[in-house]
Write a structure and sequence with these properties.
The protein is of the alpha+beta class and 339 residues long. The protein has helices spanning 34-41, 47-55, 96-104, 134-141, 168-180, 260-267, 281-289, 321-338, and strands at 3-7, 20-24, 60-61, 77-80, 106-110, 113-118, 149-150, 159-165, 190-198, 207-209, 212-216, 222-226, 234-242, 246-253, 297-305, 312-316. It starts with a strand and ends with a helix.
Protein backbone atom coordinates (compact mmCIF):
# COMPACT_ATOMS: atom_id res chain seq x y z
CA UNK A 1 0.00 0.00 0.00
CA UNK A 2 1.32 3.44 -0.91
CA UNK A 3 2.03 6.02 1.78
CA UNK A 4 1.62 9.75 1.29
CA UNK A 5 3.90 11.99 3.37
CA UNK A 6 3.12 15.67 3.91
CA UNK A 7 3.16 18.55 6.38
CA UNK A 8 0.03 19.77 8.16
CA UNK A 9 -1.45 22.79 6.45
CA UNK A 10 -4.79 24.19 5.41
CA UNK A 11 -7.37 21.37 5.36
CA UNK A 12 -8.72 20.77 1.89
CA UNK A 13 -12.36 20.10 1.23
CA UNK A 14 -13.12 16.41 0.63
CA UNK A 15 -9.40 15.66 0.87
CA UNK A 16 -8.89 12.07 -0.31
CA UNK A 17 -7.36 9.63 2.21
CA UNK A 18 -7.51 6.55 0.00
CA UNK A 19 -4.05 5.54 1.17
CA UNK A 20 -2.06 5.77 4.38
CA UNK A 21 -0.93 9.35 5.00
CA UNK A 22 1.90 10.48 7.26
CA UNK A 23 1.45 14.09 8.37
CA UNK A 24 4.16 16.05 10.17
CA UNK A 25 2.73 18.54 12.63
CA UNK A 26 4.05 22.08 12.24
CA UNK A 27 4.18 24.89 14.83
CA UNK A 28 0.86 26.29 13.64
CA UNK A 29 -1.01 23.10 14.56
CA UNK A 30 0.87 22.28 17.76
CA UNK A 31 -1.42 22.14 20.78
CA UNK A 32 -4.49 20.96 18.85
CA UNK A 33 -6.30 17.84 20.04
CA UNK A 34 -5.80 14.83 17.81
CA UNK A 35 -9.55 14.29 17.31
CA UNK A 36 -10.13 17.91 16.29
CA UNK A 37 -7.14 17.78 13.95
CA UNK A 38 -8.57 14.75 12.15
CA UNK A 39 -12.14 16.07 12.09
CA UNK A 40 -10.92 19.22 10.31
CA UNK A 41 -9.15 17.16 7.66
CA UNK A 42 -11.45 14.22 7.08
CA UNK A 43 -14.31 16.17 5.57
CA UNK A 44 -17.46 14.09 5.26
CA UNK A 45 -16.26 11.32 7.58
CA UNK A 46 -18.65 10.79 10.54
CA UNK A 47 -17.16 11.67 13.91
CA UNK A 48 -18.02 8.16 15.12
CA UNK A 49 -15.84 6.71 12.35
CA UNK A 50 -12.92 8.97 13.29
CA UNK A 51 -13.10 7.95 16.96
CA UNK A 52 -13.40 4.32 15.91
CA UNK A 53 -10.17 4.32 13.88
CA UNK A 54 -8.38 6.05 16.77
CA UNK A 55 -9.62 3.44 19.27
CA UNK A 56 -8.62 0.58 16.95
CA UNK A 57 -5.07 1.96 16.76
CA UNK A 58 -5.25 2.72 13.03
CA UNK A 59 -4.29 6.30 13.80
CA UNK A 60 -0.79 6.52 15.24
CA UNK A 61 1.34 9.36 16.54
CA UNK A 62 5.08 8.71 16.31
CA UNK A 63 4.22 5.04 15.62
CA UNK A 64 2.32 4.67 18.92
CA UNK A 65 -1.36 4.21 19.72
CA UNK A 66 -2.83 7.41 21.05
CA UNK A 67 -5.96 8.81 22.73
CA UNK A 68 -8.33 11.26 20.99
CA UNK A 69 -7.61 14.04 23.51
CA UNK A 70 -3.83 13.93 22.95
CA UNK A 71 -2.44 17.42 22.31
CA UNK A 72 -0.27 17.36 19.19
CA UNK A 73 3.29 18.70 19.35
CA UNK A 74 5.41 20.25 16.63
CA UNK A 75 7.32 17.49 14.86
CA UNK A 76 4.81 14.75 15.70
CA UNK A 77 4.26 12.28 12.88
CA UNK A 78 0.59 11.37 12.53
CA UNK A 79 -0.41 8.25 10.63
CA UNK A 80 -3.87 8.58 9.05
CA UNK A 81 -5.34 5.33 7.69
CA UNK A 82 -7.30 5.03 4.44
CA UNK A 83 -10.83 6.32 4.99
CA UNK A 84 -13.65 7.09 2.60
CA UNK A 85 -14.75 10.72 2.60
CA UNK A 86 -18.06 12.11 1.38
CA UNK A 87 -18.41 13.06 -2.25
CA UNK A 88 -18.39 16.76 -3.07
CA UNK A 89 -21.71 18.42 -2.40
CA UNK A 90 -23.01 15.76 0.03
CA UNK A 91 -22.22 17.71 3.20
CA UNK A 92 -25.36 18.83 5.03
CA UNK A 93 -26.08 22.49 4.46
CA UNK A 94 -26.96 24.90 7.25
CA UNK A 95 -30.29 26.66 6.85
CA UNK A 96 -30.44 30.35 6.01
CA UNK A 97 -32.46 30.87 9.20
CA UNK A 98 -29.76 29.33 11.39
CA UNK A 99 -26.97 31.26 9.69
CA UNK A 100 -28.93 34.50 10.08
CA UNK A 101 -29.55 33.71 13.75
CA UNK A 102 -25.86 33.05 14.42
CA UNK A 103 -24.84 36.18 12.53
CA UNK A 104 -27.03 38.20 14.93
CA UNK A 105 -25.69 36.24 17.90
CA UNK A 106 -22.06 37.34 17.54
CA UNK A 107 -21.33 39.48 20.61
CA UNK A 108 -17.59 39.99 20.06
CA UNK A 109 -15.17 39.65 17.16
CA UNK A 110 -11.59 40.61 16.44
CA UNK A 111 -8.94 39.28 14.07
CA UNK A 112 -8.51 36.00 15.93
CA UNK A 113 -11.67 35.34 17.93
CA UNK A 114 -15.44 35.11 17.79
CA UNK A 115 -17.69 35.07 20.84
CA UNK A 116 -21.20 33.84 20.07
CA UNK A 117 -24.30 33.92 22.25
CA UNK A 118 -25.15 30.30 21.48
CA UNK A 119 -28.87 29.65 21.07
CA UNK A 120 -30.38 26.92 23.27
CA UNK A 121 -30.85 23.54 21.64
CA UNK A 122 -27.90 23.94 19.27
CA UNK A 123 -25.09 21.44 19.77
CA UNK A 124 -21.60 22.92 19.57
CA UNK A 125 -20.60 20.27 17.01
CA UNK A 126 -22.18 17.52 14.95
CA UNK A 127 -22.28 13.88 16.00
CA UNK A 128 -24.52 11.52 18.01
CA UNK A 129 -27.44 12.08 15.66
CA UNK A 130 -26.72 15.79 15.15
CA UNK A 131 -25.96 16.60 11.52
CA UNK A 132 -24.75 20.16 11.99
CA UNK A 133 -23.64 21.98 15.09
CA UNK A 134 -22.44 25.47 15.87
CA UNK A 135 -18.90 25.00 14.56
CA UNK A 136 -19.97 23.36 11.27
CA UNK A 137 -22.50 26.12 10.64
CA UNK A 138 -19.93 28.85 11.32
CA UNK A 139 -17.49 27.18 8.93
CA UNK A 140 -20.13 27.30 6.21
CA UNK A 141 -20.84 30.94 7.03
CA UNK A 142 -17.15 31.84 6.96
CA UNK A 143 -15.49 29.66 4.29
CA UNK A 144 -12.58 32.10 4.13
CA UNK A 145 -11.74 31.32 7.78
CA UNK A 146 -9.63 28.17 7.57
CA UNK A 147 -8.91 27.67 11.28
CA UNK A 148 -12.25 28.02 13.07
CA UNK A 149 -12.08 25.89 16.23
CA UNK A 150 -14.04 25.69 19.48
CA UNK A 151 -12.01 27.08 22.37
CA UNK A 152 -14.32 25.39 24.89
CA UNK A 153 -17.75 23.78 24.90
CA UNK A 154 -21.28 24.22 26.20
CA UNK A 155 -23.92 21.53 26.61
CA UNK A 156 -26.59 21.53 23.92
CA UNK A 157 -29.31 22.91 26.23
CA UNK A 158 -27.03 25.56 27.75
CA UNK A 159 -27.19 28.96 26.06
CA UNK A 160 -24.75 31.84 26.16
CA UNK A 161 -21.16 32.92 25.56
CA UNK A 162 -18.85 30.53 23.74
CA UNK A 163 -15.46 31.32 22.19
CA UNK A 164 -14.45 30.22 18.68
CA UNK A 165 -10.86 30.82 17.63
CA UNK A 166 -10.15 32.10 14.12
CA UNK A 167 -6.39 31.61 14.50
CA UNK A 168 -4.35 28.76 15.93
CA UNK A 169 -2.37 31.23 18.07
CA UNK A 170 -5.58 32.42 19.74
CA UNK A 171 -6.75 28.84 20.28
CA UNK A 172 -3.50 27.89 22.02
CA UNK A 173 -3.45 31.08 24.12
CA UNK A 174 -7.05 30.81 25.35
CA UNK A 175 -7.01 27.07 25.96
CA UNK A 176 -3.82 27.49 28.00
CA UNK A 177 -5.55 30.23 30.00
CA UNK A 178 -8.51 27.93 30.64
CA UNK A 179 -6.33 24.95 31.47
CA UNK A 180 -3.47 26.41 33.47
CA UNK A 181 -4.81 29.53 35.16
CA UNK A 182 -7.41 29.72 37.89
CA UNK A 183 -10.35 31.96 37.11
CA UNK A 184 -9.87 35.42 38.56
CA UNK A 185 -6.07 35.38 38.32
CA UNK A 186 -4.36 37.66 35.85
CA UNK A 187 -4.20 35.93 32.52
CA UNK A 188 -7.04 33.54 33.29
CA UNK A 189 -10.50 33.25 31.81
CA UNK A 190 -13.47 34.10 34.04
CA UNK A 191 -16.73 32.39 33.06
CA UNK A 192 -19.97 33.48 34.73
CA UNK A 193 -23.25 31.57 34.45
CA UNK A 194 -26.78 32.33 35.59
CA UNK A 195 -28.95 29.47 36.82
CA UNK A 196 -32.33 29.00 38.43
CA UNK A 197 -32.28 26.40 41.20
CA UNK A 198 -34.92 24.73 43.34
CA UNK A 199 -35.28 26.06 46.89
CA UNK A 200 -33.72 28.85 48.97
CA UNK A 201 -30.01 29.14 48.18
CA UNK A 202 -29.28 31.68 50.95
CA UNK A 203 -27.84 29.12 53.40
CA UNK A 204 -25.44 27.47 50.94
CA UNK A 205 -21.73 28.21 51.32
CA UNK A 206 -20.33 30.60 48.68
CA UNK A 207 -17.94 27.91 47.44
CA UNK A 208 -18.53 24.24 46.67
CA UNK A 209 -15.28 22.28 46.68
CA UNK A 210 -16.14 18.67 45.86
CA UNK A 211 -14.32 16.19 43.56
CA UNK A 212 -16.24 15.07 40.50
CA UNK A 213 -16.05 11.64 38.89
CA UNK A 214 -17.30 11.14 35.31
CA UNK A 215 -18.50 7.75 34.12
CA UNK A 216 -19.91 6.68 30.76
CA UNK A 217 -22.86 4.29 30.87
CA UNK A 218 -24.63 2.28 28.17
CA UNK A 219 -25.28 4.29 25.04
CA UNK A 220 -22.42 6.68 25.74
CA UNK A 221 -24.37 8.79 28.26
CA UNK A 222 -22.12 10.71 30.67
CA UNK A 223 -22.97 10.67 34.37
CA UNK A 224 -21.06 12.83 36.86
CA UNK A 225 -21.18 12.54 40.64
CA UNK A 226 -19.33 13.79 43.69
CA UNK A 227 -16.86 11.05 44.60
CA UNK A 228 -13.56 10.94 46.51
CA UNK A 229 -11.87 9.36 43.47
CA UNK A 230 -12.96 12.25 41.24
CA UNK A 231 -10.99 15.23 39.99
CA UNK A 232 -10.69 18.31 42.24
CA UNK A 233 -13.54 20.67 41.36
CA UNK A 234 -14.40 24.13 42.68
CA UNK A 235 -17.35 26.40 41.91
CA UNK A 236 -18.09 29.82 43.42
CA UNK A 237 -21.76 30.74 43.81
CA UNK A 238 -23.64 33.95 44.57
CA UNK A 239 -27.33 34.44 45.27
CA UNK A 240 -28.90 37.00 42.93
CA UNK A 241 -32.62 36.83 43.71
CA UNK A 242 -35.04 34.70 45.70
CA UNK A 243 -38.48 33.64 44.48
CA UNK A 244 -41.20 31.52 46.02
CA UNK A 245 -39.49 28.12 46.11
CA UNK A 246 -36.66 29.05 43.73
CA UNK A 247 -33.41 31.05 43.61
CA UNK A 248 -31.61 32.78 40.78
CA UNK A 249 -27.88 32.30 41.30
CA UNK A 250 -24.60 33.22 39.67
CA UNK A 251 -22.03 30.44 39.23
CA UNK A 252 -18.32 30.85 38.53
CA UNK A 253 -16.60 27.53 37.78
CA UNK A 254 -12.96 27.73 38.83
CA UNK A 255 -12.22 24.32 37.36
CA UNK A 256 -13.81 23.11 34.13
CA UNK A 257 -15.30 19.68 34.74
CA UNK A 258 -18.16 18.12 32.80
CA UNK A 259 -21.58 19.15 34.26
CA UNK A 260 -19.72 20.86 37.11
CA UNK A 261 -22.28 23.58 37.94
CA UNK A 262 -25.21 21.19 37.67
CA UNK A 263 -23.69 18.54 39.94
CA UNK A 264 -22.30 20.99 42.51
CA UNK A 265 -25.72 22.66 42.74
CA UNK A 266 -27.43 19.28 43.18
CA UNK A 267 -24.82 18.30 45.79
CA UNK A 268 -25.73 21.47 47.70
CA UNK A 269 -29.36 20.37 47.77
CA UNK A 270 -30.58 22.75 45.06
CA UNK A 271 -30.77 21.12 41.62
CA UNK A 272 -31.14 23.30 38.53
CA UNK A 273 -34.60 23.85 37.11
CA UNK A 274 -35.10 21.90 33.89
CA UNK A 275 -32.21 19.50 34.57
CA UNK A 276 -33.47 16.14 33.32
CA UNK A 277 -30.35 14.28 34.46
CA UNK A 278 -29.69 15.62 37.95
CA UNK A 279 -32.91 17.49 38.74
CA UNK A 280 -36.42 16.87 40.08
CA UNK A 281 -38.88 15.50 37.52
CA UNK A 282 -41.98 16.81 39.30
CA UNK A 283 -40.60 20.33 39.65
CA UNK A 284 -39.43 20.27 36.04
CA UNK A 285 -42.96 19.33 34.91
CA UNK A 286 -44.40 22.20 36.96
CA UNK A 287 -41.90 24.68 35.53
CA UNK A 288 -42.64 23.56 31.97
CA UNK A 289 -46.20 24.70 32.59
CA UNK A 290 -44.75 28.05 33.68
CA UNK A 291 -42.71 28.36 30.48
CA UNK A 292 -39.28 26.98 31.45
CA UNK A 293 -39.01 24.16 28.94
CA UNK A 294 -35.29 23.41 29.14
CA UNK A 295 -32.27 23.54 31.43
CA UNK A 296 -32.12 26.95 33.12
CA UNK A 297 -28.39 27.54 32.66
CA UNK A 298 -26.95 30.44 30.69
CA UNK A 299 -23.31 31.43 30.15
CA UNK A 300 -23.87 35.12 30.81
CA UNK A 301 -20.35 36.56 30.55
CA UNK A 302 -16.70 35.94 29.75
CA UNK A 303 -13.62 37.91 30.77
CA UNK A 304 -10.25 37.18 29.17
CA UNK A 305 -7.02 38.58 27.76
CA UNK A 306 -6.16 38.33 24.08
CA UNK A 307 -2.66 37.32 22.97
CA UNK A 308 -0.17 40.13 23.43
CA UNK A 309 -2.67 42.44 25.15
CA UNK A 310 -2.84 43.66 28.75
CA UNK A 311 -6.42 44.91 28.35
CA UNK A 312 -9.13 42.75 29.89
CA UNK A 313 -11.95 41.93 27.46
CA UNK A 314 -15.38 41.53 29.06
CA UNK A 315 -18.28 40.17 27.02
CA UNK A 316 -21.89 39.70 28.15
CA UNK A 317 -24.90 37.89 26.70
CA UNK A 318 -28.41 38.61 28.00
CA UNK A 319 -30.77 35.83 29.01
CA UNK A 320 -32.62 34.53 25.94
CA UNK A 321 -36.42 35.02 25.83
CA UNK A 322 -37.18 31.38 26.69
CA UNK A 323 -35.61 32.01 30.13
CA UNK A 324 -36.08 35.76 30.56
CA UNK A 325 -39.86 35.78 30.01
CA UNK A 326 -40.83 33.11 32.58
CA UNK A 327 -38.31 34.59 35.04
CA UNK A 328 -39.95 37.99 34.65
CA UNK A 329 -43.35 36.39 35.33
CA UNK A 330 -41.94 34.79 38.47
CA UNK A 331 -40.57 38.15 39.60
CA UNK A 332 -43.93 39.85 39.08
CA UNK A 333 -45.67 37.12 41.06
CA UNK A 334 -43.04 37.44 43.75
CA UNK A 335 -43.60 41.21 43.97
CA UNK A 336 -47.37 40.84 44.19
CA UNK A 337 -47.07 38.44 47.11
CA UNK A 338 -44.76 40.74 49.07
CA UNK A 339 -47.05 43.76 48.78
Amino acid sequence: MKTLTKTAGEPAKNQPFAQVSLITIDEEHAGQRLDNFLIARLKGVPRSKIYNVIRKGEVRVNKSRIKPEYKLMAGDLVRVPPVRTAEAGTEAKASHQMMALLAKSIVFEDKGLLVVNKPPGLAVHGGSGVTLGLIETLRQMRPEEHHLELVHRLDRDTSGCIMIAKKRSYLRHLQAALREKSAGEEGGVVKIYKALVIGDWSKVAPKVNAPLLKTVVAGGERIVKVHPDGKPSLTEFRLLQRFDGFSLIEARPITGRTHQIRVHAQYSGHALVGDEKYGDDEVNALMRERGVKRLFLHASSLSFYLPGSEELVHVEAPLPPDLAVPLSCMAQLNDSRTK
